[in-house]
Specification:
By secondary structure, the protein is an alpha/beta fold. The chain is built from nine helices and eight strands. The chain has one domain: Acetylglutamate kinase-like (Carbamate kinase, 3-Layer(aba) Sandwich). Bound molecules: glutamic acid (GLU).
């Protein structure tokens, strides 16, 4: 089913939710609770939910006594190894309140580009969802190098939505919607709805979010939204504290229509 409007979100059967580093690390680590509340509510009504979570590197910063996000690759890789572990522990501890089990899925760009690892990843995700497990996906930062990265987790989330044939992708960050210009500027207006193929002419897309701990911004969200929409997945961009409203279909954030002809047959095809 292609979702046509926010009103249809409460009936969506397969949803990918992506959350950015600054929303769930540092002082915002407590937002994991409200995020999990919303995911567990959707899970309890029978929806299949996948969480794409950034924040491995950001979560490690205090544990490794770093001043900020490390800039060299080796320290980023080491930080991701430490932070991913802490992050999964935090998610599972919160999910325990609902009796929901998380499954960690770490992917590299090559895993989704090459047929065999791609179909392995697809099969594993399908089985996790059939087992009612909540997969939590991140880039496998410990082995990813600058040359072979997804770029950012917004893109990873769009590719995961495409991989599993999700009806909806929700991109969560610190900003509640896309605006006609950076939201701190006078006269910035919320963009409610983006039709498929709308080039957003005249919109000033900048980088948003708390600088320093993550890598995404409005620009990466728009390009991820386009990848997902082209593949037949509707997209909602909003702020992490609004996740419950978003999943209940309320009028929050910016909605991107999916291409009506977008859904590929890949997801339904027999696995190699
Ligand atoms: N994979 C990175 C992490 O978990 C974040 C990438 C991003 O912010 O897009 O720290």
């Amino acid at each position: 089913m292609t979702l046509a409007t926010r009103d249809e979100i409460p009936a969506a059967t397969r949803i990918v939710v992506k959350v950015g580093s600054s929303s769930i690390s540092g002082d915002n680590a407590e937002q994991i609770g409200l995020l999990v509340d919303a995911l567990a509510t959707a899970h309890a009504r029978g929806a299949e939910i996948v969480l794409v979570s950034s924040g491995a590197i950001a979560t490690a910063i205090p544990f490794l006594s770093l001043d900020g996000r490390p800039t060299d690759l080796a320290t980023q890789q080491a930080a991701a190894a430490v932070g991913q572990n802490v992050l999964m522990w935090r998610y599972q501890t919160s999910l325990d309140r609902y009796g929901v089990l998380a499954g960690q899925v770490l992917l590299t760009a090559g895993d989704l580009e090459n047929a065999t690892p791609r179909s392995n990843a697809q099969r594993a995700m399908d089985r996790l969802l059939a087992l009612r497990i909540l997969p939590i996906v991140n880039e496998n930062d410990t082995v990813a190098t600058h040359e072979i990265r997804f770029g950012d987790n917004d893109r990873l989330a769009a590719l995961v939505a495409e991989l599993i044939g999700a009806e909806l992708l929700v991109l969560l960050s610190d900003v509640d919607a896309l605006y006609t210009k950076p939201p701190y500027l006078d006269g910035a207006r919320r963009i409610d709805h983006v039709a498929h193929g709308d080039e957003l002419a005249g919109v000033e897309i900048g980088s948003v979010g708390r600088a320093g701990v993550g890598t995404g911004g409005a620009e990466t969200k728009v390009s991820a939204a386009r990848i997902a929409a082209d593949a037949g997945t509707a997209v909602l961009i909003t702020a992490t504290p609004l996740v419950a409203e978003a999943l209940a279909g309320h009028d929050v954030g910016t909605w991107f229509d999916a291409a009506s002809e977008g859904r590929t047959a890949e997801h339904d095809a027999p696995l190699a």
